[in-house]
Batch of 4 targets.
Target 1
Amino acid sequence: MPHNQDEERAGEDERTPMLGRSSRQGKPDNDDAGDSKWSILNLLQFLGGGIYAPDPSTYDPIEILLNTEDEKERDDLTRKWKDNKLSELNFVGVVSALLAGVLTSTGSWPNILPNGQASPWSVRTSWYCGIILALFSILCAADQTVRLHRLSSHRDGLDNIRNLLAKNGKANVVSGRRKPSLIQIMTWQMPVMFLTTATLCMIVGMFLHVWSATTHLKKPSFWDDHTKVAVTYTVVAIFSIIVFFIGQVSLFSSVRR
């Protein structure tokens, strides 16, 4: 009997590691699933480019200034965020005004369509949408600039800015930390969103404009002047888009580290 008990214990000792290994083998699957989930989220954030889906460079400074314990440092961080935001709004307003000027001048661009035909409705629609988006970018930038200046002029201006940025203006009951308001983050991103969308509308309109000249020919040829313009523009545009996205990937990777 003692001999049988020893054999049973030995058998249990031999089987236990196998169970341990099998349980550990199941975990990587969950980790892989989690990694794939996070990779999808990262992809969505990358496609947002920190514009449509604000990245940590937008969220983290606000969260830090809301939860810094030292009052002097908290005020310094708030003042730094305000100054940087004002500089950003000023830049966005200037660029939006330039873009709006370019878009409004598209009506006087040389007509590349044969026989003086009017541009297709899709071209005009893209450019008109770009104009209204650029104008709203200017309007939002001006509005937010004025509001920041007025908030800062108050005696408790820095506290008012933090209360505006915080979710519900109060700290979380459980963690004791103040979280940035998602609505506020998206609101302060609106000028950049409008500007980016207006730029996309102009690029799409230019694609439609150059290629529309190749579809209105009575006797189309494979390699006429209109096709040369369209192909050359497309090659340069695609190259620029690829280089742009390479830069975005490098910036996105640096922020995520």
Note: Residues 56-256 form one domain.
Target 2
Amino acid sequence: MVDVDPLVILALALGPGVFWVWYFYHRDKLEPEPAALIIRIFLLGALITFPVALIEGFSGLFITSPLVMGVVIAPIVEEYGKFWVVRRFVYRNVEFDEPMDGIVYAASAALGLASVENVLYVFAAFATSPSLALGTIAVRAIFSVPGHALFSSVWGYALGRAKFTAAERRPGIVFRGLALAMVLHGIFNFLLFSADTFAYATVIFILVLIPGLWILLERNIRSALRWQRQR
């Protein structure tokens, strides 16, 4: 059995979230956001994990199906929680002055939540064995942690676009972005739930969904940066 210090496990569990925040921060090449504001939104995203968990736990008192909880309730509650952080704490800030900012701040909030979630999953695995914890860290660093940022970047881009669109069109743009993020999150969770029973779930997950999410992100980033260059 591998013997690993719990503090090392904690650092490794937090590492992916920090790395992906750095990644999204540096994708905004034309007008990077203040690092202090990024950190603040990341920490608020981490804090929103707890009310989100309470709501999910309360919902679980009435919904006994793990599939419904994982595929429907969790995506709705988690995406709205992350959205609320950005909408409440940074949307009206003068630094939120271009569509790309929506992607960056959405990813920051999402990765705050994902980091807390990651710590919980990793230490649950660590209670079984350090080797399982290390394996959990590796898999989640590639899929689940950036997955949260990929989902939320969808509504982040929509929120960024909406801010610089005619007022009457804003609610529709934001609603569609948030709904799409929830659906993608639900599909992600469904494929994970189905991996043991549906032969092609893992193939679809790795070869279709994950590349599709990254392609969507790249399209939105290109569109946002093009807006910056043209203004």
Note: The mean pLDDT is 95.
Target 3
Amino acid sequence: FALLDLIEANPKSSLQNIILGCVLDLSENSKCLHFIMTWQGQKQQQLTHLLCELCRDEEREIHVSRTEKGVIHDHSKPLMGVLQQSVQITPLARFELSRSVLDLIDNMRSKIYGFFCKLGFSELPGLHEEDSVTLCIIENFLDFKMGEMWQEIVTELDMEGVKLVAPDGEAVDTILRATEERGLAVAATQNYILEQYNKQDLQFEKAFYDD
């Protein structure tokens, strides 16, 4: 609990990333998950809400394209921030890391995804409306990141003048198209969630005035 308290108490601190990694390692023990899920922060928030809030903070920090409600705006680059986009893709040396891989190291989103892989993505306690929207992105984090990496691979091959054989070219096109289609599908799901919350609010309001 003390580690989670530290994460909550140190917003936008490099400590958050380190401590989150420690807690994620501890959660490899299945018995630990029960205790983690019973944690409550200073504002009675639960871990699920804290993780979603951390994800939103990270995305605001790196200027990921989102709508006012947190919905994916750029379907072809659903995870990419302004800085990552500004780094020019160049042919890399054998052991040099690409900008997509460096992004995994630089922020907490991969660790947050790791947590939810253990906790699950449905029927989670403590989620707010904005958390449900954010969770859609977290759930698809790995697929989106793989799409980024394939985009980099294709760009590097083009720069080096490598022409793919027809079957490989078709496979790559399918992967890139699937990534963008997934971005569109996730955005549609997010808008549906917002619509359901809005309907629920209207029903509560109507019931209040009817009483």
Note: DSSP finds ten helices and no strands in the chain.
Target 4
Amino acid sequence: PEMKANWLAAERKEALAKFAPSGFKKTAMVLMGEPSDAYKAKIQGLILADKKAKAEAAAKKKAMEEERKKQVEERRKKAEEARKGAKKKNDGEEGEPAEEKEEAPKEEEKAEEIVVELTEEEKGMWRKPCGQPDVADSILAKAYANFSLPTREEGFDDVVFVWQGEAEASRLLKDWIFQKKLTQRVEDLKPGESFKAALAEWSKTMQAWRKLQGEWKDPNRRKALLAKRAEAKKKAAEEKGEEAPAEEKMDIDMEDLDVFAVEDVTDVGNGEPLFANFAYEDWSLLTVRYELHLLLH
């Protein structure tokens, strides 16, 4: 919350109001753009320290695992020797007692110093990687468009641009907001009434099309569908005082069909719907494309 508040003029003013009666000098420190060499060195030192700590932890874990395996192997060998000795005793074989070997005192192994270096990518880092973002995505999505730089008009006695000047900082913020608008999810997007009405109409159309697809795939229902269409054409012709057109069977290769030339998607010319062979994925893609069309128009 504090990080977000630092970027919003209204919240900065609210924070400054708490210090209005005091004698404190209120200064805004703006750190944007490429930092100083000293800051870069400090960040790279922290990154290197973290990297070394991880490498040492991994080496320690590996050494402990190797020691564990070594102890397991030693216990296995001792158990095997004991088993062989017991077998010889049971078979009546007497052998010379095995000389107990004195174990030489183990020399303390000197831990090798772990040497790590920064990669070229890490050398170019100006910020230490952090597992958590400064501002949660859900909060950022609602506020980033209103981010601004502090000004004296808000109540600051001074505004100091530490790394880059005001002009460069303003440009960086503007570019960052623009880039966010290209990729950031809009959490509080509310569709208008026209969108809702068009989407409801689209849902009805989709239901009708999917029903028509089912009828076309069923041979018996397909015959009834074609007969119904023929009757409708005949009736329409009679109402116009024209002679009903003769039924002609058209052979249409759906693979070579120019879909953009089809005038009626429910009948490409031979009664077959353009979407007769649509699968689940096709319907999903069609829905997404239409919803995007509604959002953009």
Note: The chain has two domains: 2-91+113-183, 193-296.
